[in-house]
Amino acid sequence: MTITAQLTLGDGERSMTLSLCSVALAKLAETLIDHEDTAEALDWLSRHADSAVRKAIARKKCLPATAVRRLVADPAVEVTLELLRSIRARRALTGGEVISLCLRDPAVAESIACRYDNFELDGDAVANFLERHADSRVRIALAGNAFVPKPILRRLAQSDPDAGVRNDARQMLE
Length: 174
Prior knowledge:
By secondary structure, the chain is mainly alpha-helical. Helix content is 57%, strand content 8%. Strands 1-2 form a two-stranded antiparallel ribbon. 32% of the residues are buried.
């Protein structure tokens, strides 16, 4: 996909058009001002074929809801991880969407476990899912989060098969 940029030079009377490769577009996307005036451009960039471009805009606060939904389903894990760094995006996700993300990749599930308190979730379904996750790194991240419901921390401390998870959960309960 070829992208062109229109540059206005000096006094505004002259302009030029440049072609941008994906690498240049990703760098440009990183530097876009995070303001509602750029929301349309961010939405458009969220559709770009290059995951580096999508990753560059994933944490923007003014990312439109349509772009957030698109990036939640992004096939590139690095885009999803970058999106999850945005508290606004985390708070926009439903419990079902969060569980779907956890199923995609252990690194995503671990990121969610670390930031469990920054999701606005109804009930403990996500924490219960993370508590039973097969990857011990996910359960360690959950056990080390003080905002996880105490009954879940108690279960991890008492019966998790991994000693590191049990120890972290016990420390969190102290």
